[in-house]
Amino acid sequence: MIPISKPYIGEAEKQAVMEVLDSGMLVQGPRVARLEEKFAAIGGTKFAVAASSGTTALHIALLAHGIGQGDEVITTPFTFMASVSSILYTGARPVFVDIEEETFNINPDLIEKAITPRTKAIMPVHLYGYPCNMDPIMAVAQKYGLVVIEDACQAVGAEYQGKRVGSFGVGCFSLYATKNIMSGEGGMITTDDETYAQLCRMIRNHGMQRRYFHDMLGYNFRLSDLHAAIGLAQVERLEGFTEKRRQNAAYLNNHITSVVTPKVREGYKHVWHQFTIRVPGLNRDAAVKQLNDAGVGTGIFYPLPANRQKPLEAFGYGDLSLPVTDKLVQEVISLPVHPSLSQEDLETIVAEVNKL
Question: Which residue range is the domain that position 62 belongs to?
Answer without folding.
Answer: 11-97+105-235
